[in-house]
């Protein structure tokens, strides 16, 4: 819509500029035509401007449409249209101005070199305007398609969250309803907050960091309840600006992986450490968890873990381009995952 307005303004400026140019030539440049009168010159040059400039516009638009079918047809329309506009403009000039000085058509040829030359300027100017705006229209369409594609990919990636967590949480709540109803209520409230966040807030490409932290706290509360005292979970969230914008659910796969693959040996220290620091315009998220061979990884577990980690990289590339760090390493029996941007 905005580009259409700009195009209209440019065309109007183009018409007005050539009208002033032609009118000034008659009024100031050639004194022999001044006796025709101001009103006569205004009307005459308005008509000439519309024929030359308006004709150039129609011819070029017609050639553009023909170009979709045939280059030869487009060139034919350009040449034929150019000659027709030239003849029409000079016929008007002859009837209402030049005939007062030339007795016969033979003495004033429509097809002399100057006839072609004088139409070149408005014709080329119109051609440049059309080509320029066509380029920007195509560029804008391509950008719009890229944005739509990016949005679609982001929505798809955000939707690829492991269903295991939801299934296991519902199972846990189901068994707690009978044994520990108050704890079941608390977990159900945590789950409700998480689902509400996913349904409504996660529709945006960015959310306040505090909301993401609240979501992680709900997730961690549920997971801690499921793991019990076998796993020590420590968290640290340091936010300088709670409204700092981050992509939603970006940290979720790392936290899910930590709880899914944490060691479960009874005679060893099983731990998960989660740290998030936001300072100025930087965010650093780091997760550590103990690992060993006691965690049985099914094909489905590996599938969803792989999807989650790939999603992080894809989403950050789409949103932040190359301005981020995403690393996963394992040192001895400790797995490290880090996101910085």
TrEMBL record:
Keyword line: Kinase, Membrane, Transferase, Transmembrane, Transmembrane helix
Residue span, Sensor histidine kinase NatK-like C-terminal domain: 255-316
Task: From the record, give the transmembrane residue ranges.
Answer: 7-24, 36-59, 71-93, 113-136
Q: Name one GO molecular function term.
A: kinase activity
- The Signal transduction histidine kinase internal region domain extends over 152-229
Kindly give the Gene3D superfamilies that the UniProt entry links to this protein.
Answer: Histidine kinase-like ATPase, C-terminal domain (3.30.565.10)
- Name of a matching Pfam family: His_kinase
Q: Which InterPro entries match?
A: Bact_2-comp_sensor_kinase (IPR050640), HATPase_C_sf (IPR036890), NatK-like_C (IPR032834), Sig_transdc_His_kin_internal (IPR010559)
Q: Specify the domain of life of the species encoding this protein.
A: Bacteria
Q: What is this protein called?
A: Histidine kinase
| Source species | Flammeovirga kamogawensis
């Amino acid at each position: 819509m905005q580009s259409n307005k700009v195009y209209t303004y440019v065309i109007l400026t183009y018409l007005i500029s050539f009208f002033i140019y032609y009118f000034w030539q008659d009024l100031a440049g050639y004194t022999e035509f001044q006796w025709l009168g101001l009103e006569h010159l205004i009307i005459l040059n308005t008509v000439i401007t519309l024929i030359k400039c308006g004709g150039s516009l129609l011819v070029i638009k017609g050639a553009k449409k023909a170009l979709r079918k045939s280059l030869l047809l487009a060139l034919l329309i350009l040449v034929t249209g150019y000659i027709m506009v030239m003849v029409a403009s000079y016929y008007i000039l002859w009837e209402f101005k030049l005939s007062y000085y030339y007795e016969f058509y033979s003495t004033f040829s429509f097809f002399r070199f100057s006839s072609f030359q004088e139409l070149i300027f408005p014709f080329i100017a119109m051609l440049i305007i059309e080509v320029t705006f066509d380029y920007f229209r195509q560029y804008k369409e391509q950008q719009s398609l890229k944005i739509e594609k990016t949005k679609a990919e982001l929505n798809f990636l955000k939707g690829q969250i492991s269903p295991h967590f939801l299934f296991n949480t519902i199972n846990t709540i189901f068994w707690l309803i009978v044994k520990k109803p108050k704890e079941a209520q608390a977990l159900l409230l945590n789950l409700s907050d998480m689902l509400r966040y996913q349904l409504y807030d996660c529709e945006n490409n960015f959310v306040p960091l505090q909301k993401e932290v609240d979501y992680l706290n709900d997730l961690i509360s549920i997971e801690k309840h499921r793991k019990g005292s076998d796993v020590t979970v420590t968290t640290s969230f340091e936010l300088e600006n709670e409204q700092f914008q981050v992509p939603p659910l970006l940290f979720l796969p790392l936290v899910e992986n930590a709880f899914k693959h944490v060691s479960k040996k009874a005679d060893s220290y099983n731990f998960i450490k989660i740290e998030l620091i936001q300072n100025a315009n930087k965010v650093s998220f780091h997760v550590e968890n103990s690992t060993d061979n006691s965690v049985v990884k099914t094909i489905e577990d590996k599938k969803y873990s792989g999807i989650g980690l790939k999603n992080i990289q894809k989403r950050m590339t789409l949103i932040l381009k190359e301005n981020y760090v995403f690393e996963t390493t394992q040192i001895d029996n400790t797995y490290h995952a880090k996101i910085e941007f």
